[in-house]
Amino acid sequence: MNVNVMTHPLIQHKVTLMRSVETGSKDFRQLLDEITLLMGYEITRDLPLEDVDVQTPLVKMVGKRIAGKKLGIVPILRAGLGMVHGMLDLIPTAKVGHIGLYRDPETLKPVEYYCKLPSDIAERTFIVTDPMLATGGSASAAITLLKEKGAKHIQLMCLVAAPEGVEVVNKNHPDVTIFVAALDECLNEHGYILPGLGDAGDRIFGTK
């Protein structure tokens, strides 16, 4: 499978805290921010660099800076919003688009209801964020929509994934690399990840 599972001890520790039913919304949001920031370091590892002259307080030197790479963050509403803050802490100049999808409770198929993206789509590398990769339908539909709008480079960033969801995204979008903090066992009969962490949107926003 084209999926990178991030096994850093801090990430694994924080994911375990998020799984607990005793973790409230405030701590859940904070942990999600922290994990997103940690994952962001790995996802941006291959950003191109260029040389730049720098005057330090003592001497002139040649340093490194990111070579003008344009990034975009696209959360899948609503739960994906919980990962935006951590990414913007890391990359404050990134543009943020939004894709609104919900999963039909009967068919489990994604239904689009909103899309707002930066104008220079073809020039950007997009990181699609969604805490849960369950059936893979919403993530795959969001990636398809981005491609239809002109996106050329896309990565998918999730907190917890089921093998079924990874398989769907891999099949429909083999060019998209998936980054996850945990690859769980399976989906239950209702399309929820096991062992998972419940409904991420409800736990982020304190709704039921």
What does this structure look like?
Pathway: Pyrimidine metabolism; UMP biosynthesis via salvage pathway; UMP from uracil: step 1/1. Catalyzes the conversion of uracil and 5-phospho-alpha-D-ribose 1-diphosphate (PRPP) to UMP and diphosphate. One of its GO terms (cellular component) is cytoplasm. Its cofactor is Mg(2+). This protein is an alpha/beta fold and 208 residues long. It has a single domain, classed as 3-Layer(aba) Sandwich (Rossmann fold), CATH 3.40.50.2020. It has 6 helices and 13 strands. Strands 1, 4, 5, 6, 7, 8, 9, 10 and 11 form a 9-stranded mixed beta sheet that branches. A two-stranded antiparallel ribbon has the order 2-3. Helix 1 (9-19) packs antiparallel against helix 2 (25-43) and helix 2 (25-43) crosses helix 3. The protein starts with a strand and ends with a helix. 34% of the residues are buried. The model has no long low-confidence stretch (mean pLDDT 92).
Which architecture name does CATH use? Answer: 3-Layer(aba) Sandwich
Per the CATH scheme, the topology name is Rossmann fold
**CATH classification, class level:** Alpha Beta
Shape: globular
Number of helices: 6
Unreliable stretches (pLDDT < 50, length at least 5) are none
Return the string of H and E elements: EHHEEEHEEEEEHEHEEEH
Binned, the helix content reads: 25-40%
Structural class: alpha/beta
Mind summarizing the main beta sheet?
Answer: 9 strands, mixed
Multimeric status of the protein? single chain
Q: State the separation between the terminal residues, measured CA to CA.
A: 33 Å
How many structural domains are formed by the residues? 1
Which whole number gives the mean pLDDT?
A: 92
DSSP, total strands: 13
Q: Strand share of the residues? A: 25-35%
The rounded Rg comes to 18 Å
